[in-house]
Amino acid sequence: MSSLPSLQNSHSISYLSQREAAEIDETLMGPFRFSVDHLMGLAGLSIATSIAEVYKPSEFNRVLAICGPGNTGGDGLVAAQYLHHFGYKPFVCYPERTPEPLYTGLVTQLETLSVPLVSVEDLPLDLSKDYDILVDAMFGFSFDGTARPPFDDLIQRLVRLHSYDQTVQKHPVIVSIDIPSGWHVEEGDTGGEGIKPDMLVSLIAPKLCAKKFSGPHHFLSGRFVPPVIADKYKLQLPPYPGTSTCVRIGKPAQIDISTLRANYISPELLEEQVESDPIDQFWKWFRVAVAAGLKLPNAMALSTASKDGKISSRMVSMKTVDKNGFVWYTNYESRKANDLSENPRAALLFYWGGLNWQVRVEGYVIKLSEEESEEYFHSRDRGCQIGSLVSKQSSVIPGRHVLHQQYKELEDKFSDGRLIPKPKHWGGYRLRPEIFEFWQAQTFRLHDRLQYSPQEVNGKRVWIINRLAA
């Protein structure tokens, strides 16, 4: 799925009146030969994609799409299908089923996916407990007047969600398609008592009421709009990224960093289940991280300190781990190398978030022999070997062009395939562990922390395992 570009300034985007929106629809389905089912397919996909960009199925899995009898309801039916394929668990409430073949076909398609169709009577009066996302697909821009039963009651159920005490229970998010149901198409929520969606997905171009939308997420879909129509209505529309069918517009989402947290679910990490030797335990976890397909499981944060106590951290690649410790390679003239020459102690951190694991290692650092560094250097890709010759790591340079120019010169110099000499300023380090900690996330922040520290027992060095408070 394509990542979205930077937010578009809502003041530079065109807004459509109800008349203009109706004229564009008539033109698309008239002279331009767009069919209703084609437009519904495009809208439904972009709605589902917009939802997936913000609300991940791992956290917002249960979706209820409330669909009206018109085209907007059809958009919701299609979106429910795509949400099923995206990994959500959708439910559909479709009180007034349109008997036309297009709509009956959409219902049949949902039934073949085993998407439950829920009657209004079977819906709970309080929608805050059973669903994570509520898709408001009841009425579109052609609706005018007062909502009739049962939609008037359904709208009120969505309205009531914002009156609950959110400190006790978080309400599900509301996603409105094109027009929040019950809003005036041009004037918005005139009485201030209507639905307050968390996300609005505008179709083709935002309608005038979208100027009154105050939720955190406003998306636009309508990448199919022909240039002729855009020119005729002087539409100012944002560019769509890559192959995406939607684009975020409007104000940036407000981020409350204090609320960013995860609900961890992990098995217990018990002392009797881990290996007696921390290197063996590291390999046990490392093999799982590799098998799980985690990206760069050998990436580790290396923290060093200068003789005056200034600490710095960076990511490096572990190249070897055995009973003698952890090995990585770098430039001996870099900041980390200068730190290690003054203070040969360091800390490593491996973080495997997909597994709720991290491993901390602290110890004493030594340089590898020239022979070991030489052997590894020549096992690398020739491009990386040339890069090691070029980069005087951590030094100030006038621009990136300097590196590229020097690289090209050396690439030409060694184009005959002859051996590239290892630079004297490049080689490996080994951290000899003196302490390990294996951390596993748990609910309520009661994390498992098992620390290995060495002790002399009967003249032998053994590892003692202690549990630390989270």
Largest sheet: 9 strands, antiparallel
Cα-atom radius of gyration: 30 Å
**Based on helices, strands and strand pairing, what is the structural class?**
alpha/beta
Tell how many strands the DSSP assignment holds: 16
pLDDT averaged residue by residue: 91
Helix content: 25-40%
Unreliable runs: 1-7
Number of helices: 11
Q: Encode the helix/strand succession as letters.
A: HHEHEHEHEEEHEHEEEEHEEHHHEEE
- Which oligomeric state applies? single chain
Strand content: 15-25%
Any chance you could write out the topology, listing elements then pairs?
Elements: H1 18-29, H2 36-54, E1 62-67, H3 71-85, E2 89-93, H4 101-112, E3 133-137, H5 151-160, E4 173-177, E5 199-203, E6 217-221, H6 227-232, E7 246-249, H7 278-291, E8 299-305, E9 311-317, E10 320-322, E11 325-331, H8 335-342, E12 345-352, E13 357-367, H9 370-377, H10 382-390, H11 400-413, E14 426-440, E15 448-457, E16 460-467
Parallel strand pairs: 1-2, 1-3, 3-4, 4-5, 5-6
Antiparallel strand pairs: 6-7, 8-9, 8-12, 10-11, 11-14, 12-13, 13-14, 14-15, 15-16
Helix pairs in contact: 2-3, 3-4, 10-11
